[in-house]
Amino acid sequence: MSQKSDYYEVLGVSRTASSDEIRKAYKQAALKYHPDRNPGDPSAEAKFKEATEAFSVLSDDDKRQRYDQFGHAGLEGMGGFDFQNVDIFSQFQDLFADFFGGFGGAPRSRRNGPQRGADLRVQQRLTLTEAYQGCKKEIAVRAPSPCETCQGTGAAAGSGREVCSTCRGSGQVSNARGFVMFTTTCPTCRGEGSVLRQPCEVCRGAGQVEKSRKVLVTFPAGIDAGQRLRVPGQGVAGVRNGPAGDLYVDVDLDADERFERDGLDLITRASISFADASLGTKLKLPMLDDSSIEVAIPAGTQPGDVLTLKGKGMPRVDGRGRGALHVVVQVAVPKRISRRAEGLLRELEQELQQTQVEKRASGS
Ligand SMILES: [Zn+2]
Ligand SMILES: [Zn+2]
Predict the structure, then answer these.
(1) How far is the CA of 99 from the centre of ligand 1 (A)?
(2) How many domains does the chain have?
(3) Smallest Cα–Cα separation from 118: which of 140, 138, 83, 143?
(4) What number is the average pLDDT over the span 297-309?
(5) Domain housing 317
(6) Does any domain span residue 290?
(7) Which of 60, 89, 110 is the last residue of a domain?
């Protein structure tokens, strides 16, 4: 992977910049480097893309938080910013209409050619074990897909398309208002420049039909509730061979019986006997996967004492280490005991009290 610039530096804002400041900084950079204003200048285009990428991350609260925490690595796998799959001009069309509208420049029309499909959003529940180990899941998605009968063209067999007579194929019509010419999308062909001679019977000319399919999604170890995965190209199919949208998977976690999660840390309870608490012991603690770890309980451990084992908690999504495991110790008191045990306990109690009296008498 090539070295990436810091997003805050790219936009020239501080790490504490408000969303308004970020938007303003991006607007300035976008106006300066927009390809329409710098035709044939690859360095301007590179700067424009860099600024757009920085803005796409810093303007998204989720992504910004991840970036602040983990840097560029935090955005990998979570679906960072991928120019191969995102058409920045249509993605940010609203923004550009807003930015460039005031300059009289017509917003870039993409309706003539292929159109990018819409994004899809689904929710997926995982067990804590699945989040701990990472997992792959097949997610059922129902969305418009290319119509097989017409191969996505929308035209009935052998009929094809003909040039739109309203705009003569340009997809745009111009109207004069005063001294200024305004160009708008052709209403007849909706900007496509051509119309269907005879629509396909299956999709009624849309070129798409609703279909169910399964998408294999990889959930990285350490993923947490409230996080979102992006699967590029698995959203709604594009129109006329345009790129498909993305699939976003919102993750939720089921509660676990034995382990509680607190960010990267895990909390669990372990019950030991009074004798083990007094003498110390080693405990075999089964973990969320099939493994188990040995926990050393020191002599004199009190009920409620917490033993912290670093590096035994949840893995970080970026693979750089793990949180801690906190073991809350409970001391089990037997409810029913044998006569012999009762005798031994009374003897022990006497011995313990004797030790106390002797300790006090010797002044320690
Ligand atoms: Zn037309
Ligand atoms: Zn069709």
Answers:
(1) 27
(2) 2
(3) 143
(4) 96
(5) 260-333
(6) yes
(7) 110
